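Standup notes
- DV: blocked on the single-chain target, sequence here:
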Amino acid sequence: MRKIDEIMAYNKEFVQNKGYEEYLTNKFPEKRMVIVTCMDTRLTELLPKAMNLKNGDAKIIKNAGAIITAPFGNIMRSILIALYELNTKEVFIVGHHECGMTGIDPNNVVSHMKARGVEDHVIHTLRHSGINLNRWLTGFDSVRESVENSVDIVRNHPLLPPRTPVHGLIIHPETGALEVVIDGDRYLESHG
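- DV (later): unblocked, structure below
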């Protein structure tokens, strides 16, 4: 059975049996927080459980590595929308140990693209059009430094509401143990 057919068959039963009822909530997060974390499959259920979150508690934004690189990119836009339009008050950047973005080689990624059918001329055109694939596809060497850099981008954003706590954490992908890298409240206290 095709994956899409499997999903649609399950979904039909889910809706008919009212499986959604236990997840009913509204669009405003109960705990008034927005989280940026990694798309790693190990975190899908572990991160909310480790942070004591249930459906409706937080806005969760996921990408490869929980990395924020562009102050005016999609991730930062989503954070700002959550803060200004969806009633969130705090930002949490949550990286994790054993992340697939650690030490990722952009040249390797490009070679995998070519192996899967992207033609050389497409890569060549992108590079000569000013797209820096090496920068765009680069991961990080240290999850701690990556979390610190992402927190710094958010904290120093000109459109961030003043006095917004921006926290940085690292989660262990097997145990769910959380480590505080940056306590956003303490940072605000010490920086007046």
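- Follow-up: The chain has a mean pLDDT of 95.
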